[in-house]
Amino acid sequence: MKIAGLFSGIGGLELPFHARGAEAALLCDIWDASRCVLEEHFPGVPLVDDIRNLDTLPAGVQVVTAGFPCTDLSQAGRTAGISGDASGLVSHVFRLLHGRDIEWLVLENVRNMLVLDRGRAMAYLVSELEALGFQWAYRLVDSRFSGVPQRRHRVLFAASRHHDPREVLFADEAGEPPAQTFREDAFGFYWTEGLSGLGWAQDAVPPLKGGSTIGIPSPPGVWIPGAAVGHKLVTPDINDAEALQGFDRGWTEPAMSGKKKGPRWKLVGNAVTVGVAEWLIDRLYQPGSVVIPGRELTDLERWPNAAFGRAGRRWLFDASAWPVRRTYQHLLDVLNPDALAPLSHRAAAGFLARTKRSTLTFHPDFLVDLEAHVAVKRAEADRAFGQRGSQAAA
Where, by residue number, is the active site (predicted)? Predict the structure, then answer.
């Protein structure tokens, strides 16, 4: 296959194609940091910076991928909607498809676009696809199905004029795994929250988030009940985050360019989980029989988690977020507990204060360990302050 990757980021959608011998005819991303990573891992592939300046797709392209910006769609973003300055750039994907006969279009974005503005983003996407003569299908999936311990829900789209996308997205169904799949030795959470949400995940981390454009890291927290006091609440580093997305550790190092604080967290947080793309792409190469029941929708009150459509008609599919179940990597098998940084006193104390104002229900042992962690880190900070004072006096 010959592919063109639009909004390529760090290549999560394109990497599995590349690994299967496909030819990348074009990669496009407006961010310099992304292009540094793409240039390193996709040598020789033409890179374009701004999709708005791209007049046409290269000749012979059979597949177009586009993990278009989620900034205006995600709960962590501006939620301005599909017409926002960033997410609205997806319109250029449809512009480039006018008059081009391709085999497949693959889109990916956040779960929130199913409900934001009462599904306005979804209505826009499918109306544009149908105007171009595509039939389409989408499915909400959880990255954990690919084996990584990151509970990350994303919407995958597959659309074609020549093929049935149901044979790609609905040819596999594994269902939610049993509870005993997940160990109880580590739990992921958002230490930056605590009032209305926690992102709690057993034997996994919640979805990785990008942080800011100036490189402020936003790692999740991990609670390890069996660790020593002071090391029960820790955070993974950026190399861990890359592994949690299915990339090789160090994948985004080319973006640093000698900077002390770089954009790696944002790059990884915005990426497509590699294993998720691998499953989808394997089905593009080898479609299967539809194994999930569907029923036509006559009154679409809200967008379901999985659907198919063509020519103005819609069908709901009772698909889980786990099409397959790859061998699961437990969180503490991916992370090295001895190498994880303890949550600082300032971060832990702020989080503890928010939990006390919150109406959320917390695991009682978690709160006990949190309070003990704050006390230990406060004592360490006091000792360090005292030592600095003694040295200054001397």
Answer: 70
Nearest to 156 by CA among 200, 109, 112: 109
Phi-psi region of 311 (alpha: psi -120 to 50; beta: other; left: phi over 0): left
Residue 28 annotated to the active site: no
Token pair 């199913």: residue: 114
d(CA 117, CA 81): 7
Indicate the domain borders of the chain.
Answer: 2-177+271-317, 180-268+328-393
Adjacent-strand bridge partners of 109: 155
CA-nearest of 109, 201, 186 to 155 is 109
Q: What is the pLDDT of residues 92-128, one digit of tens each?
A: 999 999 999 999 999 998 888 888 777 888 888 999 9
Token reading at 7: 């909004």
Instruction: Count the Cβ atoms, other than its own, within 10 Å of residue 183.
Output: 16
**Structure tokens belonging to residue 162:** 């020549």
This prediction's pTM = 0.91
Domain 2-177+271-317: CATH class, spelled out: alpha beta
